Amino acid sequence: MTRQRRDSADAPTARLSDGTYAQIVESTFTSGYELIVDGTPQSHVDLEDPTHLHFEYVARMGAVIDQLREPGTPITAIHLGAGAMTIPRYIETSRPGSRQQVIELESVLVNLVRSALPLPKGASIRVRHGDARAVLRALPAGLRGSADLLVSDVFAGAQTPAHVTSLEFYREASTVLAPDGALLVNLADGPGLAYARRQIATLRAVLPHVIVLAEAQVLKGRRFGNLVLAASARPLPMEWLPRLMAAGPHPAKVASGREVDELAKGAAIVMDDAAVASPKPDAGIFGR
């Protein structure tokens, strides 16, 4: 997860409500730009090619999204956490005509992103401001049971807030999904995967079909990194996914079936009253 970047004193910057700063800087080793929040890289955007998913975990999300419905057909998607809107841009480009809703707490972050990294013209991407869980609960009735995809990628700095990690939250989230819709969750954990195991067990209690995508050493609990959980009430389309993940460009493993059973074995389901934020990585992991 370590990467270098070209920080600039005159790069577009905004102060968030918690006093931390968001900044958009030019990427060093690839085309495009990165959104850095409180020193943590949160998004990468290539305006010339929105299908260029540079961050490994985002590429894994994209691979799952590509398996949903027929290739190129529009979908209805809801995104919890805006970042630089990498995935909404990807969907708009790869599936023109998709209907998308983005929920983001920090309006100044959205303004920064829209100003420095404009969204594609004509894109049907609506932004709603507020807490992810509260706004999700208040979405119009017409969206309930209609989403082909719900992406939960909520971070406060380098951590996922506790209130979007519980059984109650996942129950609320599942109500917006179509019967065969998929929920994608980005989380980060370190050696032993204690946090990730609890999240897998909790998610499976609501949406029983769960797969986990991550770099092999992360999935084995040997080092800190991102894991993508994909979950649905029905079996997920996986025919080509393991081969795609193994091929790279960021080789990864797909855990399903018995492997997921083992990951969740003995892990406690997380309830609201016991939920905690995800582990905070050591600052050195991002090359700071």
What does this structure look like?
- By secondary structure, the protein is α/β, with parallel strands linked by helices.
- The protein has a single domain, classed as 3-Layer(aba) Sandwich (Rossmann fold), CATH 3.40.50.150.
- Helix content is about 25%, strand content about 25%.
- The chain contains nine helices and 13 strands.
- An eight-stranded mixed sheet has the order 8-7-6-9-10-12-11-13, with helices on both faces.
- Helix 1 runs parallel beside helix 2.
- The radius of gyration is 18 Å and the shape is globular.
- The N and C termini lie close together (about 10 Å).
Mean pLDDT equals 92
In what order do the strands lie side by side in the largest sheet? Answer: 8-7-6-9-10-12-11-13
Molecular shape: globular
What top-tier CATH class fits best?
A: Alpha Beta
Question: Topology, pairings included?
Answer:
Elements: E1 5-6, E2 13-15, E3 21-27, E4 33-37, E5 40-45, H1 56-67, E6 76-80, H2 86-94, E7 99-104, H3 107-116, E8 125-129, H4 132-137, E9 147-152, H5 167-174, E10 177-189, H6 194-204, E11 209-214, H7 216-219, E12 225-232, H8 241-247, E13 253-255, H9 258-264
Parallel strand pairs: 6-7, 6-9, 7-8, 9-10
Antiparallel strand pairs: 1-3, 2-3, 3-4, 4-5, 10-12, 11-12, 11-13
Helix pairs in contact: 1-2
